[in-house]
Amino acid sequence: MKEAQPRTIFLKDYQKPPFLIDETVLHFDLNEQGATVKSRLSVRRNPEAELTTSDLTLDGVDLELVSIAIDGVALSEGQYAVTEEGLKVIGVADTFLLECETLIKPQEITCLEGLYKSSSMFCTQCEAEGFRRITYYLDRPDVMSRFTTTITADKTLYPVLLSNGNEVERGDLESGRHFVRWEDPFRKPCYLFALVAGDLLNIDDQYVTASGRKVSLRMFVEPQNKDKCEHALSSLKASMKWDEDVYGREYDLDIFMIVAVDDFNMGAMENKGLNIFNSSCVLAKPDTATDSTYQRIEAIVAHEYFHNWSGNRVTCRDWFQLSLKEGFTVFRDAEFSADMNSRTVKRIEDVNLLRTAQFAEDSGPMSHPVRPSSFIEISNFYTLTIYEKGAEVVGMIHRLLGEELFRKGSDLYFERHDGQAVTTDDFVQAMQDASGKDLTQFKRWYDIAGTPVIDVDYQYDEQAQLFTLTLSQSCPSTEGDADEKPFHIPFTFALLDSNGCNIPLIQNDDAVFANAPTELVLDFVETEQTFKFQHIEKEPVPSLLRGFSAPVKVKNTFSRDQLLFLMMNETDGFNRWDAGQRLSADIIQSIAEDYMHGRALNVDARLVNAYRGLLVSKSIDKALLSKMLMLPTESYLIELADEANIEAIHHARNLVRDTLAEKLKIELLRCYQENTDVGAAYSADFNSIARRSLKNSALNILLSAGDSDALVLAEKQFVSATNMTDESAALIALVNSDFVSQRESALNTFYAKWKADPQVVEQWLSIQCTSAKSGTLEAVKRLMTHEAFDIKNPNKVRSVIGAFCNHNLINFHNLSGEGYQFLADNVIKLNKLNPQIASRLVTPLTRGKKFNQERQALMQAQLHRILSEENLSKDVYEVVSKSIK
Ligand code: TRP
Ligand code: ZN
Questions:
Q1: Are 475 and 418 within one domain?
Q2: Residue from 113, 123, 127, 270 whose mutation best tests the ligand 1 pocket (most atoms within 8 A of CB)
Q3: Cα separation of 701 and 629, whole Å?
Q4: Alpha-carbon torsion angle 720, 725, 730, 732, nearest 10
Q5: What's the whole-model pTM score?
Q6: 517 with 426, same domain?
Q7: Out of 127, 129, 222, 304, which one is annotated catalytic?
Q8: Domain count of the chain?
Q9: Cα–Cα–Cα angle for 463, 465, 471, nearest 5°?
Q10: Which residue CA neighbors atom 9 of ligand 1 most closely?
Q11: Measured in angstroms, how far is the CA atom of residue 127 from the centroid of ligand 1?
């Protein structure tokens, strides 16, 4: 960064907006050379503003001002000033009409913010601060306005013209152009503004709300995608129904629109009445989309829909409050997915993500609280901490209050703050007021970064029939601080007898035995706290932090035998899976140790037996089993280590997998056969998904170990699969095997078959880039010159560069340092094209802490190289400068 360092924004500096905008009337003229935007803003001095200024300062980036007038009178030169960051109108009245005309160049935008072109269509992305790239405005979420938008464009090229709210007028204009006018009756911040123009076709559906209102549902796609809308529309209807049933929230406009675009920085965007989706998060049909894509679509459609209440009707006061809408909405979509599918599996997937990626973020250089206190670039704070930990925090409130009081709290929150821009404190206050539960200490979760660590100690006194549990907590980010205070942690707990049955939990002698609960949410509020349970007849096994009731690390106190017991007997599905993960991780870790010391390697036979037990079990739920069959990922093993040796971890994990393949071949083949359906129609229900997952895991384990019977099965599955889940699973198994010629021919066949479908090509790219076998850096670099690659398209960048650097760890971390250099080269390239993507991509280079000095030095060298670039974006500058030691 050669210029002055970018400015840091602080929460403590928040001030109410000095002006408000009651009405926003926009007029867009879309052309092939650019777009003209005329705005008419009804501006008024904010009576509540702390600070009064005579000037009006508006945000604006890369705008060409054509004209400006107040109350119909053009301003002369001394009455306004255009700056890098916007526009200042000098000496304004208390109320006035501001008219601006600006010229923008959507065709030249590669950062995919503001109004831009994606293939043949115009579309917008305004969150967080993209609206200022469209016109001069008070681009902040606490300025809410009623929008009327008129779009004019060539009728043949852009027959469809969309914006928020209801269509109120349309007509033809001269020289082949037409216009459509939209009115949004709800006040909203400008980050929820959207516009789409294109040659799209619509797939329509309808939903009747609980109160009997008819809502048109309309999905707009490019013509070739018309058969990929069904799943999103049915997910949408299920979400609308769920939000009525579970939160009592109905949709509030007569039309709800979804548009799919190919070039998009994130998954999707909740613009009022006009959600815009990344194609890869909304388009699906059985032969092109995998089960995990089906589930991702269901979750994201729900997420964006749920924002209509948690985000749009009640929005954020400022961007420090981002988790107010994101954490709450992720909690809502996770509950929805849990209700639609297997609750246990959903929990396992979410915790896996949290424990690997969010924990790593929380102990890395960009660590921040759920409500950050400062940032340089807000786009860098759309993080796992804001989204996933934020959802955990809401989930803890849910656990502490229980279903009923939580609902009372959310009702009060929506009622009290409808139409307002509020803070996370307002959310917690509503929960507290409705429930009567004191959440003062709980609020710490919003303000303190880092992952708390819980030490568990327990004793059983047979004589006294007393079980004593002692929990102590600490948090690495505040350890030793003078004001270090404990968190309020809901710690879900049970005791299991030797048959795996839950034991009644009696904390006071006067409790009635028969009514004693067998599971408790303990309020763990002290630094160290003891809980006693009476009338425990035999030594029990404790079941700790059931369902992962808080986003913390629990130090493992279990022996391998206890873990085996829990893996077979735990009644909490999540904990049962977790016991298996802990046991496998422990075994992989000791093999890795032996590997580093050149000792003989062997796999604890107890693990093989445990897996055999699972595979032959008649009673275990298949959805749970499908997750239990997956070994802990390399990322998770790295997260567990103090200093990770990636070669040792990779080798040890592969040895365990190969041993399972060898010792359990018969059971795995049987699992494959029993879960294979021939000729059945594809269904994305969770049972079918679990069975496909089981079958494909079995195939993968066997083929990775080089089993030749598995090769025959995989090749057969590859050519005869009738859905993308099975087809790509066979390809993945082949690509990760040592059967080189089969692998190459499968890759070629697959590409020839699917090259016209971008969503499938993305999978084809990432399968190659994540393969530890073929995924050498050279292959990745070659793919970047392939016709299928386009560095301007974020999905392609994620499928190639992102996949390699995040999921091909053995190759990315190669000691030559070439992987790090490759990433830095591309971050530098993308810094100019798309700063948001560049800044997200750089993450693996900021995770050096887990590796040895040599690798840390190599990573630091690349970070320094990036930082010395001229014209570094604020996005990349913030992440890289904070990561340099
Ligand atoms: N609000 C969006 C969501 O979570 C996130 C989002 C979409 C976004 N596109 C973005 C955030 C671009 C920053 C930049 O649903
Ligand atoms: Zn969101």
A1: no
A2: 127
A3: 10
A4: 150
A5: 0.98
A6: no
A7: 304
A8: 3
A9: 115
A10: 266
A11: 6
